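Final report, closing paragraph on structural work. Over the funding period we assembled a curated collection of sequence-structure pairs, and we close with a single example.
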Amino acid sequence: MLMNLIELMGLVILASVIQANYKIPSPVTLMGGILGFSLLGIKPFEFEAKEFDTIVMATLPLLIASDALKMKWDDLKTHGVSLFWVAVISILFFIGLGVLVKGFIVPDYAVSIAGIVMLFCMVAATDLITVSAIFSNFKVPHKLKVLTEGESLFNDATALIVFSIAGVALTTPEEVTAGFIVGKTLSVIFGAIAIGLAAGYLTTITLRLSGEPLVEGTIILFFAYLAYLLAEHFHFSGILAVIVSVVIANRMIQNIIDKEDDDIEAANKTRNFGLLNYALTTRENQKTAIKSIDFVSMFAAALLFVSIASVVDLQKMLDYKYEIIALFVASTIIRGLTMLKFALLSNQVSFMQSIQKHWWSVLTFAGSKGALSILMVHMIPNSFEYKEMFEHVVIGNILLSTFVYSIALALIIMKNKEKFEKECEEEGHH
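Its predicted structure, as stored:
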């Protein structure tokens, strides 16, 4: 165990150095390194399926919380309609088109519509880690970051909710009615929101009792995990509960900081240094808490990508090479179409963020898959006859999207470097 930890830390350091010096995203290095070892017959990390599930369940709320902390309330208000479209409507459109190309994806399998819906849910869920790693190497407009980060954050919840409902349809012998689907969806969403709101308020109350930044980071994570576990226990969306909890807590903290800005101004005028120090402390504590969570999430992300690469069975993936490539091509084209629809609509209405051609390209290839996709595979009942095929097809698409999308995304940003830099300057003037 200790040796595995040392190896993981070494890989994280190596991946960070490579990213800093050669602009190669750390997930690409991590997964590429492990796959390279596998080709040589060396497996520095080996995980059983149950161990992998445990890793995902343990790290997923942490990663979601880390991403949610970066989502500002003002950005949600400004781009709420755009985010709803790209993270909810577009996902439903994506899954619907996936059902239509069923014959192309799995021509030799009698997969039901519910099964195809579940398959496309698994490749609809995107991973922000790779995209964030690429964005960190370039100047990218804040509005574009909000769209990509927000889409990744909220589409995971959408994909998992639809996946769960399709899973019920797959395992229930009786016909699933439209009323059942609507009722189930509403209960999953509003139940998660209620738990997330409660956890967010409790987070804020508890934070007021603490003055230690590292402890404050722990408090945020504690209630995020609590929200996740409670929501999952009651069969709601754990991911959505975490998002709501962290966003609400972050918003309330920001309100306190905004109020203390007035205190700082008053303290400067009255030379009340005690009040000034108090006001500045909250702001610094927030920054330190976020940094501490980001630091922990970095190792969690590394563990996830290493574990994904470690569970790969290259021989079985070759057995399903047609299905892997067919799904990758189809899902990439469909994602491009859904983002094109979003871009065309956004340019026709005033209340949505206008999407230019180079933004559309970024949004299309900001769809790398991650651990949530595999977690959904493992949620499929063992009685499902195509579970093995689904597992290897999804893993294959995770690997392809990590490498192909990363390269494409970096090339697109580099090609439009001047445009993005100009847009960043224009944002700075507003």
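Residues 272-280 have pLDDT under 50 and may be disordered. The longest helix spans residues 273-310. We thank the funder for supporting this effort.
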